[in-house]
Amino acid sequence: MAGTGILVVVETSAGVPRPTALELFGAARAIGDALGPVTALVVGRSVAAAADQVARLGADRVLVADAEEFAEPVAARMARAVAAAWETAQPTLVFLPGTTLGRDVAAVVAAQRGVPHLVDVVMLELTDEEIVAIRPVYQSKLLTTVRASRARPAVVTVRAGSFRPPEPAEPAARVEPLTVTLSDADRRVRVTRTVEKPRGQVDLESAPVVVVGGRGIGEPEGFAQLAELAELLGGALGCTRAVSDLGWRPHYEQIGQTGKQVRPKLYLGVGVSGAVQHTVGMQGSETIVVINRDPNAPLVKMADFALVADWTEIVPRLIARLRERRGRAG
Ligand SMILES: Cc1cc2nc3c(=O)[nH]c(=O)nc-3n(C[C@H](O)[C@H](O)[C@H](O)COP(=O)(O)OP(=O)(O)OC[C@H]3O[C@@H](n4cnc5c(N)ncnc54)[C@H](O)[C@@H]3O)c2cc1C
Q1: Given the CA of residue 258, which atom of ligand 1 is nearest to it?
Q2: Residue 142 binned pLDDT confidence (cut-offs 50, 70, 90)
Q3: What residues does each domain of the chain span?
Q4: What angle separates helix 100-113 from helix 75-89, to the nearest 10 degrees?
Q5: How far apart are CA 127 and CA 13, in angstroms?
Q6: Whose CA is nearest to atom 40 of ligand 1?
Q7: CA 171, CA 108: separation in Å to the nearest integer?
Q8: I want to staple 232 with a disulfide (CB 3.0 to 4.6 A). Which of 20, 224, 321, 322 is the partner?
């Protein structure tokens, strides 16, 4: 197999690694040490702290492309950085996050090198001859196995929530600047506007606790209670598509096939039926708790713990109890 080791590309936003990018180190670990060293590439502007964070996630070496030009999420520029890191590390596998930018960049670098691109991967293993990847197809109704020969390198984009980022550990890897030369053409595409989600909220994709409200909440006002519950549990608020389609909650809170993938320690679904398009986005959660008045709802059957009850009977009591505990702790 050409090259040695894995190159993990860490996309950043406002200097902070995308949570999905940190999960790539979990994917690298899943393959084991057989492939050789793990090199991380951190791309962005003012990413020194991000590089220090990444240096503790199991990389042997961290390359940093830190420049004003990388503040904007432009695929051609990031692809230049990946190409420079590729020259330096000569990897066997290149991992990118399955974000919009990561997928764009992966396609560019795979085409430039003429190597395979394994897309939307949720599991990965190596045989003597092949890289074997599993990816969901047909709106996640089926899983399919794709194979690429180990005779040459491959680019892999990993679906968010498929691997856990490793716990930070010492010693930290060495951090080195990477020189990237951009062309005029790379600078031609400009990002004129970005839409930020409100600040101060816990990030849904990396939250340890996710409280999700479904259509069973009955009205948009009910979500204020779920937001408070999420806040008391140190988690984030999510919703189903039925809820975002009704305009009760913003689309960026939607979890599932056409929304976000989450993998919290605790998923609490309230008034959520558990349609497959929803469960594909949360089935990796460590513990699943459900409040639903229908004992036959699919999510009740899937849950570790289910309270078959009207949510309005349970949630206010949960909130009161948690407030009480917080009061005692404070
Ligand atoms: C192509 C496609 C993509 C899709 N993508 C997504 C996606 O990404 N994410 C997603 O979530 N959905 C998605 N859907 C929609 C999905 O099929 C379901 O329609 C949706 O998930 C249902 O949302 P829900 O559970 O909130 O509502 P419902 O299915 O209406 O369930 C409401 C639940 O609340 C319970 N309930 C009602 N009142 C109470 C009460 N007072 N107390 C307690 N429980 C109560 C009911 O028993 C019921 O189980 C997609 C559909 C399609 C066709």
Answers
A1: 8
A2: confident
A3: 6-188, 204-329
A4: 50
A5: 35
A6: 310
A7: 34
A8: 322
Is the Cβ atom of 258 under 6 angstroms away from ligand 1? yes
Q: With a cut of 90, say whether residue 327 has pLDDT above it.
A: no
Predicted local distance difference test score (pLDDT) of residue 195: 66
Does the Cβ of 249 fall within 6 Å of ligand 1? no
Whether 259 is in the pocket of ligand 1, judged by its Cβ within 6 Å, is: yes
**pLDDT exceeds cutoff 80 at 138:** no
| pLDDT tens-digit series, residues 300-310 | 999 999 999 99
Same fold, 6-188 and 204-329: yes
Q: In this predicted model, what pLDDT tens digit does every residue of 12-55 receive, in sequence order?
A: 999 999 999 999 999 998 887 678 899 999 999 999 999 999 99
Q: For ligand 1, is residue 77 a contact (CB within 6 Å)?
A: no
Beta bridge partners of 243: none
Is 204-329 assigned to CATH 3.40.50.1220?
yes
What pLDDT is recorded for position 198?
Answer: 67
Q: Is 130 in the pocket of ligand 1 (CB under 6 A)?
A: no
Paired sense of beta strands 16-17 and 305-308, if any: unpaired
Report the distance separating Cα 238 and Cα 126, nearest Å: 36
Cβ of 254 below 6 Å from ligand 1: yes
Query: Measuring CA to CA, which residue among 307, 75, 74 is closest to residue 191?
Result: 74
Residue 194 reports pLDDT greater than 90: no
Q: Which atom of ligand 1 is nearest to the CA of 242?
A: 23
- CATH architecture classification, 6-188: 3-Layer(aba) Sandwich (3.40)
